[in-house]
Amino acid sequence: MPDHTASAPKKILVIDDETDVTELLAYTLKAKGYAVETLNDPNRGIGFARTFLPDLVVLDVMMPDLNGIQICRMLRADPKLKKVPVIFLTAKAEESDRIQGLETGADDYLCKPFSTKELVLRIQTILRRVGDGAAESPKLITAGPIVLDAERHAVTVNGSPIELTAIEFKLLRLLMERRGRVQTREHLLINVWNYETEIETRTVDTHVRRLRDKLGSEADWIETIRGVGYRFAERRASESANT
Asked: What is the DSSP letter of 39?
């Protein structure tokens, strides 16, 4: 039975230079009701994606000529494709490799050899989250001089735009949407990186530090709750200290 009831099936693009992988995934995902296209030539990836406009991309990392990291960066830089979720498939299982992939803007990371059942579950989770987010999340979030425009994927501080990576944007958006509520590091890992706690929580700390650096004089909107996690303040910490 199909995994979704929408009249138009969700479209998935699989890019992997191994034909046995693309054939397996095409068979598996089509059986689950998805519209699937596969490519074994990574050089065709971006051009094909612009025409196909997938709802999700499954992307191998280690490919000749053009690797998955490069393709993911190109996706994130393309106005038509920058919001398309990406799942990396790779034989590189080191923590540093996973972090690099996620920092590039991937939504999930699955190591080869992988379970097709697990991949399908991760695809379902991401597509469900994207759908829920589109229906429920506010398009414009404001906190003092910080304005996050979800539709334009843009953030301004005191009227000036700041450049955020895809992960930094997701992290700031989640914190702002849940303003005043403490978010544990584990909760952030699952909801921002869509990953269980296989990645060390210091990954969260590193991204929060980078995000604060980019917020500059407004960094203290993000509060550290010692031993627990982080919270986007109801009001700026420096203002609270002066009252």
From this structure: E
Closest by Cα among 83, 176, 191, 84 to 138: 176
Residues 6+ apart with CB under 8 A from 192: 167, 170, 171, 174, 204
Domains of the chain: 11-135 (3.40.50.2300), 138-241 (1.10.10.10)
CA distance 54 to 66: 20
Spatial CA neighbour of 69 closest among 116, 109, 39? 109
Poorest-pLDDT segment among 6-10, 16-20, 144-148, 160-164: 6-10
Q: Which of 27 and 228 is assigned the larger pLDDT?
A: 27
First CA to last CA distance, the chain: 60
Q: So what's the pLDDT on residue 243?
A: 43
SS3 letters across 56-92: EEEEECCCCCCCHHHHHHHHHHCCCCCCCCEEEEECC
The angle, 0 to 180 degrees and rounded to 10, between the axes of the packed helices 68-77 and 45-52 is 40
Is the model's pLDDT at 44 over the cut of 80?
A: yes
Cis peptide before 85 (omega within 30 of 0): no
Arithmetic mean of pLDDT over the chain: 84
Structure tokens at 43: 């050089």
pTM here is 0.58
